[in-house]
Structures are given as structure tokens and as C-alpha cells.
Specification:
heterotrimer, A alpha/beta (about 325), B mainly alpha (about 300), C alpha/beta (about 325), A: about 325 residues, alpha/beta, Rossmann fold, six-stranded mixed beta sheet, 11 helices, B: about 300 residues, mainly alpha, 14 helices, elongated, binds adenosine-5'-triphosphate, binds iron/sulfur cluster, binds magnesium ion
């Protein structure tokens, strides 16, 4: 349904080009749940923004983003607006930034459908009530007239999800929807996304760096590092036998609440410098299994992993 | 052989090493300096302004006349003989009273630039300090300052010049003083906003954890972070102040004769324009425009170099 | 080492005033928290966003107004109005912050940043000694001294957090307050920072107060955990006990919702319905009553006191009743 092919995203800055996303390809099938994980700065959000056509002005994009047989990178603004409103919904990390503080929740919910689907006020209102119920906002009827600041952080995030649901999109891009929230609220929101997904058959792309959430929610995982795909696999397989040293490092670094051994297993080193296009494995400076050839060759994604060494040899 | 060298040059470690060497620490100001120097127009304008400054300081050395001397030879025949001429030493011609226009333009440029270069920065520093205190402390002090600011803006500034002139006269230093007093609001709001934003940054808490006093925090930790705003703002205020001085001189409540300023010269030139002595307007106007344009481009270059959003 | 008794913190907020002369609203941010901490130990503080964790430790550090309650440091009660007492406090207690980049002044080199505390707390040191001490500290946290002349923006988030730690520890305090020091970092870097903190704690005998909302990290680093809700303490227990068998209904809900990084495990998070009370108008009863699945009539009348149970301390009437009855397991046995 959605397929991203050889996507490159570069930013022109005062200090030269920043290579944020380098040659990323993946696809999302109807009704599936894909997790995109990777550390901060690895290009997760920029991929989502590229799909929505919302990249910053200093960005250069290359590659193809196919959506229902149409390349989103070449579509007109008008068409993109329609797709944004009706087919792909996005949920940002910070709910306050996607809500207008001076508009009631009702107005914000109904505006899009009235505008893009020509729905009547009344029908739009009924739909708004439906989605508010769907995202479990108690006393939805009364709360429709409230302003965003009258809700708690968790409820605002639910309202943003409700907004994404108004047009019954085929795909929801959720960019770290729960990072700012505590675990109880996070559990509610993930449950909610799961219900929506199974009830309406919407596909969900969940961007996160919380592997716990990935394990509980997603079927497939895409692991990014330094703007490149390191590994892609079914969740079960990935957690069972991670095929890439970075994925292994990530899984080991998660603190285990049941068994706190003395030291956490950190990945030494710092995130990569993105001012150069990678010419070698971007993870090489931090990899425990690095061999000389890794510093000279750019590993390509093969059998779901971009590593020059066979799985059996990895620590 | 060549292949091996190429491979080495392409290797990540090699690139890392080079990158490591290159990221020698550049301070924000060194960076900004580099960016400013890349802006051709701004650099050219700095050159132009320097020429103007040299003209204002040393221009007298080339004049045969002083700025208050009256050339009785041309007085009365100004339209015919008062124009720019190399023979009688009036490079720019003479003014309506037969005084050497070149010497007067040098004198006027000096006044205008001095007003701009002293009154501009001083008023911005005054406003910025008040703004910083107001933003940092907030509360009642902030409300008082903002109230005064609003009221001040509502009073037409020309009144101050008229009143000041009536009580204290209008020498150059008086002029600069009034302009500073009128402009104390310059930079206040923008610095206040910046400080309000910065004071919630955690490095301010870290400084408090060292037991630093509020004033030390404002001047040691916050001031270097708002300096770029102050610099940009000053570059905008200098031409504004020069304009203000010219305007009040034009309206006749400015600098005292026989001292003059570009504004006063423009005013005189404009009043005699219809008599056909166009040079009396032309020369001061050209210098005035030159000064304003180069200050504008310098300000523009500073903004591009300093504003983090522009990058 | 550090003892906090019955801390209350309030903020006056002007925005909600109808008229300039109407009284300011009061946000009750921290409502009666107590804990003790020994040298070399760690207390973890967890709770949902906005429950007053930061405010609590900021008030201990003197950055937020403590309206009542006492703080005792090294056997001496801290007087927040007294300069000398405050300077003693700051020399013994330092803090690291949530946003690693915002906590460093962007216009100072990291050497200047790390040297600054020494000029305040070790005025007897010469400039060269200070510089040497700062570089040694930077090296200790893993920043090569060769990079000491760089500015914060030339470092990644994880490195900036290390620099923040170096600044806090360079004058050798005894207590380190950590306000979500790893929330802004991703897992691989988070582990580096947590390990570093633990090593430094061992070396220097530091007492740590560690605020976080990742229970995994808190469990990992803490000896004791304090669970807060709406500014009040719900439960305090040794970390292992709290994770294994939370007693308070809120702590139970919190732990049931912790995601497990294993796709074969399905967690059954306990959903909390109902709204939070307004912090400007606190109910007289249990603060958790509006969302508690076990709320009873008496819960909304008066605050439940902290009671001891199986090594836990928790504020809930359920436990109060249970502690009066004999334990069912004892009868069976
Ligand atoms: N407008 C821009 N100009 C220059 N660089 C940019 C711009 N926007 C993003 N970048 C860079 O692109 C890279 C990828 O950013 P992105 O926001 O996708 O990271 P992310 O994986 O979403 O991280 P996080 O987990 O922190 O949200 C970063 O290094 C960032 O600095
Ligand atoms: N300066 C202030 N003025 C008014 N209210 C404040 C102020 N600082 C904090 N509060 C309020 O006090 C309460 C507790 O805030 P605090 O920042 O301590 O929460 P927290 O537990 O640290 O949350 P988080 O996990 O989001 O950091 C909140 O309701 C907040 O709105
Ligand atoms: S290619 Fe080499 S450096 Fe890269 S992840 Fe695999 S083993 Fe490590
Ligand atoms: S005191 Fe009552 S409302 Fe509060 S946690 Fe216990 S049972 Fe729930
Ligand atoms: Mg992101
Ligand atoms: Mg906090």
C-alpha cells in the first residue's frame, strides 16, 4: 500500500549538507503494524514528514514514495492536502503543537471533514462524538466544547489521535505518540491504537525508541541507524534472534525490571556524524564485531540485515 | 596502488580523522564573523562606511575654507558663482549664506555619525539592561516597566526636543543626551523576551546551584546569550537615530547654528531648491543616502550572520 | 546524609485571576513528602508527568520555595533564607538536569563550564589547579581533555549529559540530585550514563536522588523507590520489593503498565479511569480516590496516613485495614 523506495533526505545548512536519511526502502501493507526504531537523530521523524510532504524548506529529497500507485514526492500541493486530510493521518510527539489553543476541540475535529468531505455540520459533529468515544474520552458531549488546555497531557494526545481518526485514514503515522507520557497513560494510548487498528483495519507506522512498546504492539520492525536501515524483521524474529550488532546492542541496553544485574550493557561511543554521506558501515565506530572491511564497505540490506558479517559470527 | 590510496581516502576512519581535526572549536562569534565576511554587500558597506568616517574625521584637511567662514566674493551671486568649483576651493559649492558647503558637509557628517554611533548603542544598552532586568525578575517590576514603555511610545518624541531646547539649549552633547532619553525603549522588548525564554533554561538553575547572585547570572550567563540580539538591534537603531536627528534638525529644533548636521543641511538645501542651487541639496543628500544604505546592509549582514534561525 | 520531612511546596499563579485585585491561585505542587537517604545509597522517585517530582527536588536544592517541612543535610538543618547555610548546602549538594543541552551555557566552553563550580566552592585553589581538576573530571566522565575547548553544541546529547555530571561533581559534593537525567537520551546512551553514575557513586560515596519515569532504569539504579501522585507520596519501599509486590493501588497500576521488551509476554495494564483532581483545589481525602478502583466512602473524607506493611510504607486505607486483620497466609500456615 505504501512503499518507500531509495529515499534520501539531505538538509542544506550553514555548515554544509546534513545527510539525515540515506537510501531507505520499506513497505507497509494494508492492516499491518510497523515499528520504526532507532536512536535520536537517526531520521525517523524525517521519513514520516517526507511521506506527509511536510519536510523543512532546506530539505532535498530523492527516491520514491509510492502510495496507491502514485508517487507522493511528485504530487501537487492540492492533491497532497487531500491525501493528508483523508488517507494518511499523523500523530506528533507533542500534542500541544498539533492543537490550536484558541479553538474548541469540536471545531478542530470537524473542520477537516467539513472542508475535505463536504460533510454537514451536524454529520461532522456526530462523527466527532463517535471518535471521541472511540478514544475513550469520558463525557465526550460536554468535552467537545472545551479548549485544549483544559485537558491533561494524556487526554490531549488522545484528542490528537481522534483528529487523525476523523477521516478514517488508511494509514496512521504515529511519531513517538507516548514518549512524553508516563507508563499508565502510554498503556492506554497503545491499547487505543491497537483497538482502532483492529476495528478499522488501518495500518499503523509507529515511530519510537521504546523497545517495550514495539514488543507489545508491532508485527514488523525497521531498525534505523545513521539514516540507514540496519535491519528489518518480524518482531518475534527480531527479539528472538536479532541479526544486526546494533539491534543486539539496543536489546541488551534495555534495563530489565525483573533482573537488575549490576551494570547495564551500553553501546560505547556516540551517534554518527551526519555531515558526510556514509561510505562505510555507519555503526562501525561503535560495533563490537567490527572487522577492517566494515570501515571501507557500505553494507547493503540483504535478507533483512545490513551487516557484512554472517549472523553466526556475531557476539 | 592508486586504488589503495583511493580506498584509504574513502575510508571512514580517514574521514573521521580529518573531520576531527577540522572541528577545532570555533566560538559562536568566530563563526558569525566567518558568515559575515562571506556576505559581499555587507563587507562592501563596511568599507563604504569606513570611508565616510574617514571623511568626517579628516575631510577638513582638504578644505580651504572653514565651515563658518563666509565667502564674500560669492555672496549675492550664489546661483551663478556658488556652484561646485575647483578654482575658488568650494568643492561642493557654497550654501545660501556663502559658507563653504564642503566644510559644512564634513561637519554635518561628523555630527550625524557621532550622534548615531554614540546615541544608538547607549540607548540600546540602556533599553537592553532594563529589558533584561524586567524579563528576569518579572512580576510587579516587569509590569511597571512595560507600563512606562507603553506610555512613552504614545508621546510624540518631537515634544521632548522642543521642550529640551527651550530649557537647556541644543549643543551637540545636549542633542545626544535627548536622543538617548527618547530612545531608552530601544531593544527593551526584544531583550526582555529573550531573557524570559532563557531564564527557564536549566543552565540558569545550574548557575543558581553555585550560589550566583541574580545580577551575576544576568551579566555572566544571560548577557553573552542575548548579545547577538543586542548587536543586531544596535545596527538597526543607529540609522534610525541618525534619521531622527536629521528629522528634528529638518524641522528646526535640532543642532545649533553654525554647527550643522546632515539633516540641517538637507533642510536648508531643500528650502532653496527652487532657486536652482541644487548642489545644496544634492551633496548632503548623497552622503546621507550613502550612510543609510551602508548601515542598512551592515545590519542585514549582521542579522544573517548572527540570527540562529537563519541557518 | 539527607533527610526530608513533610515537604510542602506551593506556587502562586497569577494567570487565573479574574481581576487584578483578586487573590492569586495556589498550585499545591508537593504535599507532604518525607524520605531519608544515606551516603552511597540511591532513592528513586517515580510518578506521572506533572506529579511534582522535579518540584520536590528543586525545593530541596533551594530552587523552589519550600512552604513547610524541614531538610536536614549531614545532620544539620538547612535554613533556606540564610546565605551561609545555603552556600554550605550547595557545596554538599549538586544537581543534574533533564535536558542535557539546555543545561549547558551555549556561550561557554566546556572547560569554563566545568571550572566554574571550583571558583565558588574551592576559592583557595589556584587557576592552574582548577583547570587541572576540571580536565581530570572531564576525563573521568569520558570526555577527552583535548576537546575541552569546544562548545556544548559540538557534542551529542549523551556527551552533554556527561559534561553536566562533570560540572556537578567537580567540587566533590556528597549528594547528587538527578532530575530525569536520562529521559532525553536513547537506550544505548542512557545505559552509558546510568553506568557512569553508578561508578561515580561507588568511587565518591555519593547519595543519589534519582527522578525518572522509566521504571526499568529506576529499579536498576535505586535502593529505595518513592512513588508520588499529585505531589504526595503513595508508597515507599526497597526497589526490589516495590517491583515484586507493590502495595498501593496506584503503584500497582503503574507497575502493571510497564512495557516488557519481549513479544512473547503480553502485559495486562490496569487502566485507570477518571480524572485527576485540580492541583489548585485538592480534595480533602485520598488524592488518588478519583481514579482508584478500590475507592471507598472513607477515602474521600480524609487523607490516609502512611502505614508500614511488609517493609513497604504506603498511604492507603486498604492496607490500614489489612494490617489490623491477621494476614490470611498466617492463618493458613
Ligand atoms: N531542518 C533541518 N535542517 C538541518 N538538519 C535537520 C533538519 N531537520 C532535521 N535535521 C537533522 O536530521 C536528522 C534526523 O532527524 P530526525 O528528526 O528524523 O531524528 P529522529 O530519528 O526523529 O530523532 P528523535 O528520536 O530525536 O525524534 C537529525 O540529525 C537532525 O539534526
Ligand atoms: N513555577 C511554577 N509555577 C506554577 N506552577 C508550577 C511551577 N512549576 C511547576 N508547577 C506545577 O507544579 C506541578 C508539578 O510540576 P513538576 O514539574 O514538579 O512535575 P514533574 O513531576 O517533574 O513532571 P515531569 O515528569 O513532566 O517533569 C505541575 O502541576 C506544574 O504545573
Ligand atoms: S558491517 Fe561490520 S561494523 Fe557494521 S554492523 Fe556489521 S559487523 Fe558491525
Ligand atoms: S485510600 Fe482509598 S482511594 Fe486511596 S488508594 Fe487506598 S483505596 Fe484507593
Ligand atoms: Mg523524531
Ligand atoms: Mg520534571
Amino acid at each position: 500500500m505504501l512503499s518507500v523506495e531509495n529515499l534520501h533526505i539531505r538538509f542544506r545548512t550553514g555548515d554544509g549538507l546534513v545527510h539525515a536519511v540515506n537510501d531507505v526502502s520499506f513497505s507497509v501493507d494494508a492492516g499491518s503494524r510497523l515499528a520504526v526504531v532507532g536512536e535520536s537523530g537517526s531520521g525517523k521523524s524525517q521519513i514520516a514528514l517526507a511521506i506527509m510532504g511536510l519536510l523543512a524548506k532546506n530539505a532535498e529529497v530523492e527516491g520514491r514514495i509510492m502510495w496507491d500507485g502514485q508517487d507522493l514526492l511528485g504530487t501537487s500541493n492540492r492533491e497532497m492536502n487531500r491525501i493528508r486530510a483523508r488517507e494518511i493521518g499523523i500523530i506528533f510527539q507533542d500534542p500541544m503543537s498539533s492543537l490550536n489553543p484558541y479553538m474548541t476541540i469540536e471545531r478542530q475535529l470537524t473542520e477537516i471533514v467539513e472542508h475535505h468531505e463536504g460533510m454537514s455540520r451536524r454529520a461532522a459533529r456526530a462523527r466527532a462524538l463517535e471518535v471521541m468515544d472511540a478514544v475513550r474520552i469520558p463525557d465526550a458531549k460536554a468535552r467537545l466544547r472545551a479548549y485544549p488546555h483544559e485537558f491533561s497531557g494524556g487526554m490531549r494526545q488522545r484528542i490528537v489521535i481522534a483528529m487523525a481518526l476523523m477521516c478514517q485514514p488508511k494509514l496512521i503515522l504515529a511519531d513517538e505518540p507516548t514518549t512524553a507520557l508516563d507508563v499508565t497513560v502510554q498503556a492506554q494510548i497503545m491499547q487505543l491504537l491497537q483497538d482502532v487498528q483492529s476495528d478499522l483495519g488501518t495500518s499503523v507506522v509507529l515511530i519510537t525508541h521504546d523497545l517495550g512498546v514495539v514488543a507489545g504492539f508491532c508485527e514488523d520492525v525497521l531498525v534505523l541507524y545513521g539514516g540507514r536501515v540496519m535491519e528489518t524483521a518480524k518482531t518475534m524474529a527480531l527479539f528472538d534472534q536479532p541479526g544486526h550488532p546494533y539491534t543486539r546492542g539496543l536489546l541488551r541496553a534495555v534495563p530489565n525490571i525483573e533482573d537488575p544485574s549490576d551494570a547495564l550493557t551500553a553501546i560505547p561511543g556516540s551517534p554518527p556524524n551526519q555531515h558526510r554521506f556514509p561510505v562505510a558501515c555507519p555503526f562501525a565506530p561503535r560495533c563490537a564485531d567490527v572487522v577492517d572491511i566494515c570501515r571501507e564497505t557500505l553494507p547493503q540490506l540483504r535478507d533483512g540485515r545490513a551487516c557484512l558479517r554472517p549472523i553466526e559470527e556475531l557476539t | 596502488m592508486i586504488g589503495a590510496v583511493k580506498r584509504r581516502l574513502n575510508s571512514a576512519t580517514f574521514a573521521d580523522e580529518r573531520a576531527g581535526e577540522m572541528v577545532a572549536s570555533r566560538s559562536f562569534w568566530a563563526d558569525a564573523g566567518r558568515r559575515f565576511l562571506r556576505n559581499r554587500m555587507a563587507v562592501f558597506s563596511v568599507g563604504m562606511l569606513s570611508v565616510l568616517v574617514l571623511f568626517a574625521i579628516f575631510g577638513n584637511l582638504f578644505s580651504r575654507w572653514s565651515f563658518e567662514e563666509i565667502d564674500w566674493n560669492v555672496l549675492g551671486r550664489i546661483k551663478q558663482d556658488g556652484g561646485p568649483s575647483l578654482e575658488n576651493g568650494h568643492w561642493f559649492g557654497v550654501d545660501e549664506l556663502g559658507r563653504d558647503l564642503y566644510a559644512r558637509v564634513v561637519q554635518g557628517t561628523r555630527t550625524s555619525l557621532l550622534v548615531g554611533i554614540i546615541a544608538g548603542p547607549v540607548s540600546v544598552i540602556l533599553g537592553a539592561t532594563l529589558g533584561a532586568l524586567s524579563g528576569y525578575y518579572g512580576g510587579r517590576f516587569d509590569r511597571t516597566v512595560l507600563g512606562a514603555y507603553t506610555i512613552w511610545l504614545a508621546i510624540p518624541y518631537i515634544i521632548f526636543f522642543v521642550v529640551w531646547q527651550a530649557f537647556f539649549g541644543r549643543s551637540m552633547s545636549q542633542m545626544i543626551l535627548v536622543i538617548i532619553l527618547v530612545n531608552w525603549t530601544a531593544g527593551l522588548l526584544i531583550v526582555r523576551g529573550q531573557v524570559m525564554m532563557l531564564k527557564n533554561r536549566e543552565f540558569v538553575d545550574a548557575a543558581r546551584m553555585l550560589g550566583m547572585s541574580d545580577l551575576a547570572i544576568i551579566f555572566r550567563h544571560l548577557a553573552p546569550n542575548v548579545l547577538w540580539v543586542v548587536v543586531i538591534y544596535t545596527s538597526l537603531v543607529i540609522p534610525e537615530v541618525i534619521m531622527m536627528e536629521s528629522l528634528v534638525s529638518f524641522l528646526g529644533v535640532g543642532i545649533q547654528e553654525p554647527n550643522t548636521s546632515l539633516g540641517a543641511l538637507l533642510s536648508e538645501g531643500a528650502s532653496t531648491m527652487t532657486f536652482g542651487t541644487l548642489w545644496q541639496l544634492g551633496f548632503p543628500a548623497a552622503i546621507f543616502v550613502l550612510a543609510q544604505v551602508s548601515l542598512f546592509y551592515i545590519g542585514d549582514g549582521l542579522r544573517d550572520a548572527l540570527d540562529p534561525k537563519e541557518r | 546524609m539527607l533527610s526530608v520531612q513533610n515537604a510542602y511546596v506551593e506556587f502562586r499563579v497569577a494567570q487565573t485571576k479574574k481581576w487584578p485585585w483578586s487573590p492569586a491561585g495556589v498550585v499545591h505542587a508537593v504535599n507532604g513528602v518525607s524520605f531519608d537517604l544515606e551516603a552511597g545509597k540511591t532513592i528513586g522517585i517515580v510518578g506521572e508527568s506533572g506529579c511534582g517530582k522535579s518540584t520536590l527536588i528543586r525545593s530541596v536544592a533551594g530552587l523552589a520555595p519550600l512552604v513547610s517541612g524541614t531538610v536536614t543535610l549531614d545532620g544539620e538543618q538547612v535554613e533556606y533564607g540564610n546565605r551561609a547555610s545555603m552556600q554550605r548546602l550547595r557545596a554538599t549538594m549538586q544537581m543534574i538536569f533533564q535536558d542535557p543541552i539546555a543545561s549547558l551555557n551555549p556561550r561557554m566552553t566546556i572547560r569554563e563550564i566545568v571550572t566554574e563550580p571550583l571558583t565558588f566552592f574551592r576559592p583557595e585553589m589556584g587557576a592552574a589547579d582548577r583547570k587541572a581538576a576540571a580536565l581530570a573530571m572531564l576525563e573521568r566522565v569520558g570526555i577527552p581533555p583535548a576537546q575541552a575547548n569546544r562548545f556544548p553544541h559540538e557534542f551529542s546529547g549523551g556527551q552533554c549529559q556527561r559534561i553536566g555530571i562533570a560540572r556537578a561533581l567537580v567540587a566533590e559534593p556528597k549528594v547528587l540530585l538527578c532530575d530525569e537525567p536520562v529521559s532525553a537520551l536513547d537506550v544505548s546512551i542512557q545505559a552509558q550514563v546510568v553506568n557512569l553514575l553508578k561508578e561515580l557513586q561507588r568511587e565518591m560515596g555519593l547519595a543519589l536522588v534519582f527522578v525518572a519515569h522509566d521504571l526499568g532504569v529506576v529499579r536498576h539504579i535505586s535502593d529505595e523507590v518513592l512513588v508520588m501522585y499529585m505531589g504526595a507520596q503513595m508508597e515507599r519501599a526497597p526497589a526490589a520489593d516495590l517491583v515484586r509486590a507493590p502495595q498501593h493501588p496506584y503503584a500497582k497500576a503503574l507497575l502493571s503498565a510497564v512495557p516488557v521488551p519481549d513479544p512473547n509476554v503480553r502485559i495486562a495494564p490496569q487502566m485507570l479511569e477518571g480524572d485527576l483532581p485540580s492541583p489548585m483545589d485538592l480534595p480533602p481525602g485520598c488524592l488518588f480516590a478519583s481514579r482508584c478502583p478500590h475507592a471507598m466512602a472513607k477515602c474521600i473524607k480524609a487523607r490516609p496516613p502512611m502505614v508500614q506493611r511488609k517493609g513497604h510504607e504506603a498511604a492507603c486505607y486498604l492496607l490500614d485495614d489489612a494490617s489490623k486483620k491477621p494476614e490470611p497466609s498466617l492463618i493458613d500456615g
